[in-house]
Give the backbone structure.
Amino acid sequence: MLLTHAPVAELTFSSLPQFFVNGVLNGAIYALIALGYTMVYGVLRLINFAHGEVYMLGAYAALLTSYALGYGPGQSGPGFPSILTLAIMLLVSMSFCALLGVLIERFAYRPMRSQPRIASLITAIGVSLLFQFGGQLVLPVSPPPSISERVNPDFLRTPVEITLKAPDRQMVATATSLKPAYEAAKQAWEEQKKHEANEFDLSPEGKTLRTSFQDAERAYQDAARKADASANKILIPKGKLVMFSTSIFLMIILWWLVTRTSAGRAMRAVSHDFNAASLMGISVDKTITFTFIIGSALAGAAAMMLATFQGTPLTTFYGVQPGVKAFVAAVLGGIGNIPGAVIGGLLMGVAEDLVIGMGYSQYKDAIALVILIGVLLLRPGGILGSSKVEKV
């Protein structure tokens, strides 16, 4: 689902750190989306099933912004650095999703507050379907790599290499000793090819030199491959590091808003007791709107980063799988609990990458449903949540 994984053949003790790191990096994005689910549920006791579609529209906002900045089909790009383009796309996507969250809350959910919860749930599903199918009438399909390969600076596509264990010295020495013979055989074969009519009808000398070159090449490459395999390395694409760093930065900002500002204290008060907060003079409507703004903006940030660094074609169903996985992450951590959403997202990412490492990549999306069923059976309240019965 997320960025291309580093090339690890299978899950072994030595490759486990690579899959774990991949999972944590991907899980940070799931956590960012899951925060929107958990914040809305915390203040309204409502599962916002349209959150995945807010994420999808945030990706489209990033795409259309890239077109407006000169990265559309047939365009050569703007005259300013790509980093500035990425920053503009991030701000536009977050702002657009924040505005969309306000509109959804005001016109879809607020009229349903006095109604039974099932009415709000049906409304959420209706809004989700409206964006999915209504969007097909007006939104383009983004061919890969409409954003990813044009907007990304080249340096973000190269990986950072972290060596946990140096390669075996004897194997390195063997490969090094074979390299001169390989290069000499290659040079001799290249010179001989100039005197041959074609490679399908070689002279006896040409056949001998070609065979010598092939044998030397095979021996050197096998030795080099074994030496490289004896090392334990972690490869992290720089694009993923940018995504992870941005996600952590936004989570820190969220923590500061919730714990250190009056708006955050109002959110916690409304989450604790809706009616008591209103009697204490807290504007419940403004607090709920602020919650939707923050949650939707975080989804917009996640959408922009994935659409930019991933390269998957955008469709109006682009938010379905990430939305489901982020919802499972919120439930796993304890829906309504902000630290729980972060923990759930990270665990979700690690679980998905471990499934890939075990050779079952075709089931990596199904692991979310397996986790959801397991949580509901064993601990319905999630890791940090409370298991209490509520009437729907």
